Amino acid sequence: MAASTADVEAIGSHCQMAFCGQLDFLPFRCDSCRGTYCLDHRSETAHACKHAGEWARRRNNLSASAASSGPSTPKPNIRNHDKQCSSPECKTLIDTALTPGIHCQRCNRSYCLKHRMEEEHKCATLTPIGARPTGQGQLERGMAALDKLRAWGASKKAAAGQSQSQAQATSKPSISANVVALNALKRAAKGDEKIPVAKRIYLHVEASADTTTAKFPTGDFYYSAEWSVGRVLDAAAKSLQVQNVNNRVEGEEERLRVFHVEGGRLLEYSEKLGKLVVSGNTIVLLRGIGPPAPDLIEV
């Protein structure tokens, strides 16, 4: 059963930047203004921080205070400071005046200088804090959704074949209906206005509820025919506000894939959109279904 919107939003946080509000499952916290922001607005410059440089001033004040207090100042220990290096075998206290903590963006944990490198704290084996749990159930749901979409694509092909045979006597009304539907799609579709009109491909985009939760489960968008499927996936996931961790995970359980309904197959990230689909087609975002296999090329 797909998670509710409230459950999904409880995992991450919305970017506090005005006019953004992006739901980010690994949000960034500004140490100066204490605000929460998405990847694009994490820096003080990007979100026009009203307290820019405050974190540095606080650190300098702590350092000056530690230097003036002399040797009588007690050193922080496990009893009065609970922030330790996240490496299990390390007991070093971090985020102190003398030992800064280094935050790992990949696993969302903080480490001492010794364990700051990914290979030192075995980052590849860790599940990022705040990420959704994965497992065999996710993969099974993904494959079930894929089977249903393949059947859907087959039925659409069959329906198209029947309508084509019937169109000999009523070709004008059929063509007219297709033109009307395509024009309606073009009027509703959103996209990058910098894309030349001649290169735009207008698509219906969905996020399968069987495998992923989207704030906006469907939408009409246009993309450049020259874009790769991977770039289209990134843009579609952002538009539908679907968690996209493809660049942060190695396994397939959390990776998003693109399914072309009319073509009845999964698309490779490197393929060019213009060679695969035409305006009016439908693509679906699926998670945890693995890479395209030879038996998935045709329905």
UniProtKB/TrEMBL annotation:
Residues 62-82 are annotated as: Disordered. It holds the Pfam family zf-AN1. The keyword Transcription regulation does not apply. SUPFAM superfamilies: AN1-like Zinc finger (SSF118310). GO terms for cellular component: cytoplasm. InterPro entries: AN1-like_Znf, UBL_ZFAND1-like, Znf_AN1. Residues 9-57 form the AN1-type domain. This is AN1-type domain-containing protein. It comes from Aulographum hederae CBS 113979. The lineage of its organism: Eukaryota, Fungi, Dikarya, Ascomycota, Pezizomycotina.
